[in-house]
Amino acid sequence: MFGVTDNTNGKLAVLRTAASAPDSLRNNYASGIAWKGADTYGALTVAYGAPNVKIAGGNGSNPVWWFGLDATSGKTYTLPTDSKTLCATDGSNASGTWGISISGNAATATKAINATNDKDGN
After folding, report:
1. Is residue 18 domain-resident?
2. Which of 20, 57, 96, 115 reaches 20 to 30 Å from 82, CA-CA?
């Protein structure tokens, strides 16, 4: 199947997580599937109360990588098909020059490391 001829150690299991779960799985009683092919593992878990998904994989006894997708219910998303990169919400994998547009103002700041002008430009 899928060009693989030797998968004598393959397994597929249905799972449900507890209130707390490892970071690689959705917690709060999520449902999912886990699979194994020889020494490579994978898991897909989904939350029951929101459109949240986690996918994990690797080998050994624990996943070596995972990522999560959090969405809005009833919306369709199109992922980039070219060389664009999706960025983590904390910006940890963002780099390069980004064309952005910012509107609004910052009348006050709760914390400033370095300020060069006050509100009057002094």
Report:
1. yes
2. 57
